[in-house]
Amino acid sequence: MPTKTSPLSSSASQRAPARWPALLFSLLLAGGALTGCGLLRGGDAQQPADERQGAIASDASERSGPDAFALEVQTDDAQVREYLSRHMQLQRFRHLPDLQDAELRRLLGAAEADVRALLSTLGYFSPEIAVALHDNPAPGAGARRDTPARTITVSVTPGQRTHIASAAIEVAGSGDPARPDGKGLARRQAQLQRGFGLQPGAPFTQNDWDDAKSQGLRQLQSRRYPLARVDQSRAEVDADRAEAALQVRYAPGPDVRFGEVQIKGSERYDPEGARRIARVPAGAPYSEQGLLDAQQRLASSGYYDAVFLALDTEAIDQDAPAAVAPVTAQVREAPLKKAVFGVGLSTDSGPRLSLDHTHNRLPGIGWRALSKIELDRKHKLLSTDWTALPDDDGWRWFSGLRLQRETTGDYEVNSSRLRGGRTKSGDRIDRSYFLQLDTAKSQGEGAPPSSSALTANYGWTGRYFNNSTNPTRGWGVAAELGVGTTLHPVRRPFTRAYVRWQGFRPMGRVDLGEGIRRESRLALRAEGGAVLARSDAPIPVTQLFLTGGDTTVRGYGWRRIGARTENDTLYGGRYLAVGSVEWQHPITVRGNRSDFESATFIDVGAVADRLGDLRARVGVGAGLRWRSPVGPLQADLAYGVQEQQLRLHLRLGFSF
């Protein structure tokens, strides 16, 4: 039976909307509030579509019987069709089986205005809309009984989409000579203008408009102006030209500087020590990132299980040009003592057992003690490291004692190391200077004589990676320099220098599907070291160089590359050179993205007692990387060219 039109069809809604020449819609939004006919909403407002969607879900969950009507959206634009199908007001009522004709007539009368308002949020201000109600044919035998008896059809021709003609950003007080920060505000205004989310030529949508204003506000609040707000915003839409002129005025509020840090929840540990660890500089301009960094320093210090830092702005006068706000640190303290038992496995040294003990406040001196026992096939270690709380400049005293028995070359070496000095750890740079006493006694046929040495040392490490646990870009460099003398069996001066570098160089993006792209990269690594002394200087073997293993030259055993005597006995050398090139490439599995990467690498290393005797040992291979939450899990199969042997190397995490 042919479809017929119901008398309830709204003929008025089928008429094309009138057009006025040079029509100008001026939509004024003060502080993001709505004016006009609900056309544009402020950054903090939620779209009624969200509320409608919740009502739809609620109505659908409670309905029974056939729907009151079916709803069809007819348009050539897939985005418009999907958006209207989800958010039209008609969706709330189509599941009601007992909908009265009077209510349906009201819905049809309001449908065009509802669709027009929704389309305006997508930037369509001159659409052609037709709404009609049709009776559906009677279902035949065996047809589903829940088929609606009527269908509402919404036909839409969106028309020309509105694009941005101009976007003017203003920060109140910019360039004002009465404000001490007037010049700084002028620079911030220029930055906001350049980085505004809706630039001329971009399509206008309500969501993009709200997001652009909010993004600019967040940028302003992130440095110096945490109390900034949107003072006024305005969108002037010329429907005939399909152009929108945007204006946003931000009120920055006072220029805020950090005040003193107030510690809350501190009972066991010295609050002054927490302030020194946080290193929030009183009087420095407010920075959201600075606050987050201070929170991270406290959280990783070992003294606290939970930390939350916030800027106390309640007492700040909004109209003042500048203000000082204290920082509140709410902490939950860690236990005074803690012991951790560990089990591990390494392809270099086999199974490993460890016991770590922490005492956060030693009696009498208040220092922190980290003690450790570690046992594996090639390495036995007993150590303790004591550190004081940092002073006002961030420097702290430290001392350490290490007793160790390890396989060094072809010998078993019993060694001790006692050191003491000062260290400072920054967000990117670590520095230290200290005195160190080394003793070493080798066991085995033809072993070097026992020896000892005293050195003054300086160390510097800089880390400039984009991520501390899973870096994909950036670089790091570390350098150590020691000057001293041997003590036993004879005294000879010597100098020891060591440098290492690691960097990641992007090599293009790989499309992993679902709109996700990840960089492939080259991972580059280099090491170099030298001990400068007379040939007869009895340098302790712990100060000499060996290489090979998971983190140096793969394809060779742990510390199996060194200098050799005439009878081919392996021992540490005075010169070290290591280099590595690795290509890391994201992996797709059957066209789907994954957290795995492939790696292809070549490692080269050499150790000798004289520069002219350095002979390269080469390892080549391939491996697999998994981006775990705690760092990359690496599995590499490497071939040692000189040893002519395959080795498997496993490693978890990244450290530099």
Describe the protein's architecture and organization.
This protein has 656 residues and is mainly β. The chain has helices spanning 48-62, 78-87, 101-121, 182-195, 206-222, 271-278, 288-299, and strands at 4-5, 24-29, 70-74, 128-135, 150-157, 163-171, 229-238, 243-251, 255-264, 304-311, 322-333, 337-346, 350-359, 368-376, 379-387, 396-408, 411-425, 429-443, 451-465, 474-488, 493-511, 517-533, 563-564, 570-571, 575-589, 592-608, 617-628, 631-640, 645-652. A 16-stranded antiparallel sheet has the order 12-13-14-15-16-17-18-19-20-21-22-25-26-27-28-29, with no helix packed on it. It is elongated and about 105 Å long. The relative contact order is 0.06. Mean pLDDT is 84; it is low at 1-63.
What keywords describe this structure?
656 residues, mainly beta, 16-stranded antiparallel β-sheet, 4-stranded mixed β-sheet, 7 helices, elongated
What secondary-structure arrangement, pairings included, does this model have?
Blueprint: E1 4-5, E2 24-29, H1 48-62, E3 70-74, H2 78-87, H3 101-121, E4 128-135, E5 150-157, E6 163-171, H4 182-195, H5 206-222, E7 229-238, E8 243-251, E9 255-264, H6 271-278, H7 288-299, E10 304-311, E11 322-333, E12 337-346, E13 350-359, E14 368-376, E15 379-387, E16 396-408, E17 411-425, E18 429-443, E19 451-465, E20 474-488, E21 493-511, E22 517-533, E23 563-564, E24 570-571, E25 575-589, E26 592-608, E27 617-628, E28 631-640, E29 645-652
